[in-house]
Design a protein that fits this description.
Helices cover 37% and strands 31% of the residues. The chain is α/β, with parallel strands linked by helices. The longest helix is centred in the middle third of the chain and has 18 residues, at 159-176. Keywords: ATP-binding, Nucleotide-binding, Transport.
Length: 300
């Protein structure tokens, strides 16, 4: 298990992370979401031991990660942006990785290189962002890590390549119990692939739990009451994040237990009452409490 305990970090005079606590179960696909500047990348750099917190710590199976080669050897980081490799080809970078990671699997590397149609002699520096991402996935998967940490890893990849890579990742999770921690603005993708999700906003964790449990607590209620004047009273009994009205139809975004919601609504003799599930994107947008268009803009 990867554990973040009471982690805080200031950069300059700005508080970037504020008392972060997370438990990332072994074999999970754990997504982290948040606005631009919320602290996602800074958190990830602590997970992989690049940064040390001002207070708190990160542990991997009981080992502190910062300045711990044994812990770092079990994890691989795919960043959003890549370092300059000064004209080196793919095989040169592979040699660097072999020196860092003793478990590097040459056979798997050659298999993946063939799958993605690379010879190893290509100049990495001249690649597009998407091609660089493909190579980084090849190298990361050749290490067969216990923990794969990724920051916006699918930007620049076409849908077919994304699916191929996800299929390989899911197979590694299933067969080897590899753990994935991923930051992404592609919320629909995280919604379909992740089993755990955390939301970070302004350096604080808003929620962090299984996606199934999270969705059990968020609902869209569409209701028409027999007596429309009672709508205000109904709203006061529910934990409402948003309320919109079109004609007589009221649409409420509610946090709570679905059975209790239905029981409460029934007291007001609704003509129409339907409770619908929310997508991860809906939960993200409504939890942060802003308008859709404004929030989509800050998400990037």
């Amino acid at each position: 298990m990867l554990v973040v305990k009471e982690l805080s970090k200031k950069i300059g005079h700005k508080q970037i992370l504020n008392n972060i606590n997370l438990n990332i179960p072994k074999g999970s696909i754990y997504g982290i979401i948040g606005e631009n500047g919320a602290g996602k990348t800074t958190l990830i750099r602590h997970l992989v031991g690049v940064y040390q917190g001002d207070t708190g710590f990160v542990e991997l199976d009981g080992m502190r990660v910062y300045e711990n080669p044994e812990a770092k050897a079990r994890m691989v980081y795919i960043p959003d942006e890549f370092f300059d490799v000064f004209g080196r080809n793919i095989n040169d970078i592979k040699t660097l990785y072999q020196g860092i990671y003793p478990n590097f699997d040459e056979i798997r590397y050659l298999t993946l290189m063939k799958m993605f149609k690379y010879t190893g002699r290509e100049n990495f520096s001249k690649f597009s962002k998407g091609m660089k991402k493909q190579v980084m996935f090849i190298l990361a998967l050749s290490i067969t890590p216990d923990y794969l940490i990724m920051d916006e890893p699918f930007d620049g990849l076409d849908p077919h390549i994304r699916k191929v890579i996800w299929d390989i990742l899911i197979k590694d999770v299933s067969e080897r119990e590899m753990t994935i921690f991923i930051s992404s603005h592609h919320l629909d993708e995280l919604d379909s692939m992740c089993d755990h999700i955390a939301l970070i906003s302004k350096g604080k964790i808003v929620f962090g739990e299984s996606l199934e449990k999270l969705k059990e607590g968020y609902h869209k209620l569409q209701v028409v009451l027999e007596n429309g004047d009672e709508m205000y009273a109904l709203e006061q009994e529910l934990n409402v994040l948003s309320h919109q009205m079109m004609g007589r139809v009221h649409t409420l975004i509610i946090v709570g237990n679905i059975e209790k919601i239905n029981k409460t609504v029934a007291k007001y003799h609704p003509i129409i009452s339907e409770v619908l599930p929310l997508s991860l994107e809906d939960i993200f947008l409504y939890t942060l409490g802003g308008k859709y268009d404004e929030l989509k803009e800050v998400m990037g």
